[in-house]
Amino acid sequence: MSHSQKISTFTGQSILDNSDLFTFVRNGTNYNVSLSNFKADLGVTGTINQVGDPLGAPILDKPSATQNNIRNLESSKGVIASVSAQNGINLACNFSQAATGLKLIPDLNADQYKVKTLVAGTNIAINESDDSLIIGFNPDSGSSKTVIVSTISDFPDPVSGVISLVADTDYLMVDDISTTNRFVVSNPNTLRAASSQMVTLEYTGVGDMFTGTDPSFKVFNVTVSAPNGNVFNTTAPSGFGIIQMVESNIRDCQTIGIVLRGGEAELCTVDMEIGLTSIVNLGNK
Length: 285
Description:
Layout: E1 21-26, E2 29-34, H1 35-42, E3 60-64, E4 67-70, E5 79-83, E6 89-93, E7 124-128, E8 133-137, E9 146-149, E10 162-164, E11 169-173, E12 177-179, E13 182-184, E14 189-193, E15 200-203, E16 207-213, E17 216-220, E18 223-235, E19 242-246, E20 249-261, E21 264-268, E22 271-273, E23 280-281
Parallel strand pairs: 9-11, 10-13, 11-14, 12-15, 13-16, 14-17, 15-18, 16-18, 17-19, 18-20, 19-21, 20-22, 20-23
Antiparallel strand pairs: 1-2, 3-4, 5-6, 7-8
């Protein structure tokens, strides 16, 4: 190559090798530097590649082999992106809470959010489905002995027209019920409601509505009706049975019947909406 050849006449080349030399002048002195050293001095060695979950949203956009774009972080629903005072990217939750009521998240400025859980209080039940929490009223929810009765099917299944109440069980009625089935009471049993003016248990069959042997049975705040039959026919051959009816009504019956033969019977504040032909036998104890 001639040392007097002009640069403009040099052979053109579109690809550089790391061993290629570049000339430069510093303080009147000629120098050369290889391409590899030139790139190292500029800090442009290496490549930019994505890392992390390949299914994630990439920050680096590489539309071609020679072009690299860096995407902006944008705010969206519940998330806000900003530049911090230290010139970093700050991602934060973008929540707000109403000024009234109790807060589910105590401190929206905390480094880690603590979401309060729901705890059932007295007479409250909390259940969950796939996508919801169900909060409901559950009277005496702390007692496993209480059965909530809103339909006849909440009582034990009848056998040949007879419903035998389960021993040591409290039946809380929350709605009116009419049935052709009679009841056998046990020891102990409670049949109750919030108010006798609100809830009625009606027996539409004939014969005796409540029967039992040596029972311990209490009716509280319930209106009882047996238009075609008798209300009671219970006995206590052991002498230790007891029937109690408190703050309740007896309506539409042929007779009250034998409340308890051989045991103790108590009718306290009971309104009897019945005819004078009805017979009351409170037992013989």
